[in-house]
Amino acid sequence: MMAALAALVPGGCGGSKSGGETAPAGRRIKVCLLPKLKGIPYFTSCSVGAEEAAKELGDVELIYDGPTEASAEKQAAMIEKWTLQKVDAIAVAPNAPDVLQKAMNEARKAGIKVITWDADGTRDSRDLFVNQSTPEAIGFGMVDAMARDLGGAAAAGDVAIISSSPTSANQNSWIGPMQQRLKEKYPGLHAVAVKYPGEDQKQALQDAQDLIKAHPNLRGIFGISSVAFPGAAEGVKQAGKTGQVLVTGLSTPNPMKAYVKEGVVKTVVLWNTKDLGYLTVHVARALVRGDLKPGASSFSAGRLGSKPIVGDNVMLGDPLIFTRENIDKFDF
Questions:
Q1: Percentage of the chain with pLDDT > 70?
Q2: What span, in angstroms and rounded, lies between the C-alpha atoms of 286 and 148?
């Protein structure tokens, strides 16, 4: 887990503005970064990059806060609070897009710029989505990694998916491409189940062990959240199935290093989470300042350089691959 961040400025009333107006040059702006939940390495590392961007830009007061459990209702309450406080921008990683839609729309009506990041919301409830990668790139990347680690195109056996909650927009968007890739490119690998432990690592561990018992021909488990992946890896390890059931998925590298070195995991797939937080703050600030116009095809984001805009998605880039050979080079 990353070192604790320096204390962040608590929420308060920012400079007021009428609906849709941009902030005048020179006025500090308040950007609220709302994760699915606080206290897990994935979102902590995102916040490190967000704080870096805020300090670099100099005119951004960053408020990083969120629930300590994956609750869309608690996220909605925080959006409502920030709307009353008249902050300038709210960046939301929605737990359940439909639940958050009303609060996000009310914030927009109040003149606040609302964007999504990490996971998208309903399209009419936000201005832009800061997208880590396309669902196809992420889903295909996980399946290709699993198949490669199981022997390539000839890999055979059962595989299962441990996701997050049934309402998690990003995980849901990856499952379809994963199943498509398995059918089209790796017909010997059969997807037999999808489990939904929520953001509960202990439940993910139990789900992994239940899958092992239920499917004697299980060769692999995909953990497609940063909570499900280490939970599934620990479940396989405790079941004594290291080397027999492979775990692949999405996580920051630090929580997975021990599992990679022990052979429970061969490949970890993820984007640079610090860069995701960094890009999100740059996008939020540019919208507030009026520097990011509708219809733009690219966006310049500090040290990241130019990033493409596809429709209403600002794209971070392709996923990273961490293996035994390179995982120690990363610290987040």
A1: 92
A2: 41
